[in-house]
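Long-time lurker, first post. I've been practising inverse folding by hand and with some scripts of my own, and I keep getting stuck on stretches where the structure tokens seem ambiguous. Below is the full token string for one chain I'm working on. Before anyone asks, I'm not after the true native sequence, just a reasonable design that respects the backbone. If someone could post their per-position residues I'd love to compare against what I wrote down in my notebook.
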């Protein structure tokens, strides 16, 4: 599958509307990594809406599920 901005925007789970990185996965990953966070696609839809992208929140969400 070819990776394109159009296709990425369709599957992007980020609900932060003013986000300039929506659909730009590489930019998104680098941005959140620089900030010690994970991108929206790592979180459940319910948690993603809190905009808490911390690694600690990711661990809490998925603790015990695996």
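-- Answer (accepted) --
I ran through it position by position. Result:
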């Amino acid at each position: 599958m070819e990776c394109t901005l159009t296709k990425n925007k369709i599957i992007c789970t980020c609900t932060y509307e003013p986000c300039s990185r929506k659909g730009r996965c590489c930019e998104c990953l680098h941005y959140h990594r620089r900030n010690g966070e994970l991108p929206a696609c790592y979180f459940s839809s319910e948690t993603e809406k809190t905009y808490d992208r911390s690694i600690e929140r990711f661990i809490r969400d998925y603790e015990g599920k695996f």
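A couple of notes from the structure itself: The helical segments are 5-11, 25-34, 45-48, 55-62. The mean pLDDT is 91. Happy to go over any region you disagree with.
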